[in-house]
Each structure stands twice: as structure tokens, then as C-alpha cells.
Amino acid sequence: MASKRPLLCLVLLSLAFSVSTISSRGIRLELSHVDARAALSGADRIRRAAERSHRRVNVLLGAAAPSPTTPPLHSDGGGGDAITSAATASVHASTATYLVDLAIGTPPLSLTAVLDTGSDLIWTQCDAPCRRCFPQPSPLYAPARSTTFANLSCGSPLCEHALPGSTRCSGSKKPSCAYYYSYGDGTSTDGVLATETFTFGSGATVVHGVAFGCGTDNLGGTDNSSGLVGLGRGPLSLPAQLGVTRFSYCFTPFHDTAKSSPIFLGSSATLSPAARSTPFVPSPTVPRRSSYYYLSLEGITVGDTLLPIDPAVFRLTASGRGGLIIDSGTTFTALEERAFVVMARAIAAQVALPLAAPGGAQLGLSLCFAAPGGKGPDAVRVPRVVFHFDGADMELPRGSVVVEDAKARVACVGMVSARGMSVLGSMQQQNMHILYDIDGGILSFEPANCGGL
């Protein structure tokens, strides 16, 4: 078995060589917020974000559960032969993460897929025929109608090594590589691995030979999309298949859903020399958990006080429990319960205003303050919050700490409590250009006007 691993490297290297244009010139995609086209009140937007965050964290926790005997983990409810120039694609956030508009096959069929930093597999629902498919906004992709579809065989290196524990080829005489992939929220996809041509933007970037899952038995749903595009750390992820060693994104403020947010893949992902950097923590070798981007959070400061939180609360264990993940799909940061309680008490003590318990419950957040003297929520003074990562401090401005319901005159801390894992959410990453250096094993970040990049 070990002798076949070089074959996997050759497959990936050949794909990376064929997409050298992307590596040298890069791709820019435009992200738009899920609520950009909806007329929502501030309260509705916060409530939807809280619901998405709890669901997303449960997906991550469910996928990271070490074994069926482990106590339940939960978030508390309080590539190609031909490439042309750079592309711009429309991306929308869903209840779980962001969605990207792309096209698959020849002729190309437009579809929308979840963009996910927490997994590797690229997949879509397939009419081959489809035994069970959930509703989606676009027609089902039919492999028989595409001239560039090709099954991956059970003997292919990608089938044997790229999805450990997810493919079904042992002792099988079937010519195709069957797979099964499940998520923590009950969503799953079952089908065959294949290769196909993918198009980003309005035909501007075309990549041939991308490995993906053609799902014909799918349960759950991906929230108004047709599948998923993984940006995780494995060989089947989009960055790996494009042959790029880095990508970055910059989220515009949570309260301004009309502005787009860019994501860069390849050489276009760059920061200034002033950027701060922290190493990724080596991922567990257990399947699925190895896809996550873990960071070492060593402490939290509120105001001028370093909180008395045991660093072990954020430590990733050898069995894959605990740790902190940086994630593009979780809106509100989820902190392990023991840390969240300490932080919440410290913030409440320094704000020194009455808690707006009913308002917080209605918004899905547990720490909310009533504005003083009938003033607006911007009158709530919030202390600075600093996340101390290994080698780099991330100081959060007020807009990355609280969300406001102007009608109810309430300001809420935009973070939630979880048990079993912590997740750095997109609201705490807003107005921060964040770069994933995959080869270097480093995450870098710097404040930025994301709408002006």
C-alpha cells in the first residue's frame, strides 16, 4: 500500500502543473452575504446569524467527535488542461457558510455550492439517476449530458488515499470509486468519485480534470445550494486541486450586507510586511478532523485584564478533542464553555449595565445589554477584547465584539458557548485580511478595509 503513495503525489503534481496559470496569476472571487438581497431588520439578521452559527458549530463538532461512545458535543443554543485569465464569481452565504456560483461539465451547467474551509470534498447532486436528492435551486447535473465527465476507478491513487475511510473499494470488483461522506447535521452524500471540467465566473477560468463527488443518494440539505466546495487541508480540496499554496479572504462588516467580500486563490493572496502570523497546529491524523485549520489560542484579554483561563481549555488533544478552528462558515465565534463563562463575566463587569435577558434570548445570544437612559445601542461601551494566539495578538474592535438591535436598544456580544471545541467565526474576522499559507503552515492577518481591496 505504501508503495502507491508516490502515485498520488504524481497525480496531484500533474494537476498542479496543468493549472500553473492559476498559481502564477491567481483568482479573485467576490463573496456576497446571505442577507444581501433580503429586507431584514437588524434583529432578524442577528437571529439568523445566531441560528447559522449554532448549526455550523454542531456540524464541526459532530464531524470531530472521536467515537460513538464519547459524550455528545454541542454548541449551546443561547484540475485542468486549459485555463484563461482571472475570474470573478458570485458567492452568497448560506445557513452554514458561503456559497459560490460556478459551472460544471461540457456544456457547462450553472450551480451554486457551499464554500467550506472545514472539509475537502467537492461534490454536487447528480442525476445518474439520483435515488434521493434534496431540493436545490438549479437543475440536477447529469453526467451523461457532459462530454468531459469521467469516473475515477477503484485503483486510482485519489480513490485509495484521498478520502481515508470514506471510499468503498476494499474487495470490490466495481470499476468506479464509490464514496460516502457525512456531516454533523445529518447531511450526507453517497455516490462515485469522478473528474469533470469546472468553470469559475462567466467562463473566465476553466479547469479540466477536477476530482469531485457525484452524489446520487443525498440526505439533509445544503441550504439553497447544489453541493459543496471544500477548502480544507486535504488533497481533494479546491486549493490542492488548483495547485495553489495559499488563499486569503477579507470579510466586510456584518452590519453592512450590501458590500461584497473578496477571496483570493494563488499568488493574488498577499498581505503587507506588517501582518501578524501564527502557526497552524498540526491536525489530528484521524479522518475528517485532518481537514480543519487549527490554531493555538493561548489566552484572552478583556479591557486590560488577562483572563484566568487555563490554556488547556483551548488545547487540541491527541485524540482530536478540543482545540480551536478558524472557520469561514461560522458567523459568531464559539468558545468552549469554561472560557466563554469567564469572558462573559469579565465583559459584563466592565460594561456595568443591566442585562437584557429577554432580548438576548430572542436574538439567540446569551450576553446582551440594554442601552442606558433610552439611548441607542451604540451608547453601550464595550471593553476591548484580544485573542492571544501563538506569536500573534488579534485585537477585536467594538464592531467585531458586539451586534446591535437598534429597535430594541440592545447590544449583544456576538459570541456563543460550545462544549468540546472552539471556533473563530467570521464576525470576529471582519475587516481583517486573513491569509492561509498552506505550504508554510501559517495563518497571517492584518486590519483592512475589505470593501476597498
From TrEMBL:
One of its GO terms (cellular component) is extracellular region. One of its GO terms (biological process) is proteolysis. Keywords: Aspartyl protease, Glycoprotein, Hydrolase, Protease, Signal. Transmembrane segments: none annotated. It holds the Pfam family TAXi_N. The active site is at 116, 327. Residues 98-446 form the Peptidase A1 domain. Residues 1-24 form the signal peptide. One of its GO terms (molecular function) is aspartic-type endopeptidase activity. Belongs to the peptidase A1 family. This is Peptidase A1 domain-containing protein. It comes from Eleusine coracana subsp. coracana. The lineage of its organism: Eukaryota, Viridiplantae, Streptophyta, Embryophyta, Tracheophyta. The gene is ga29744.
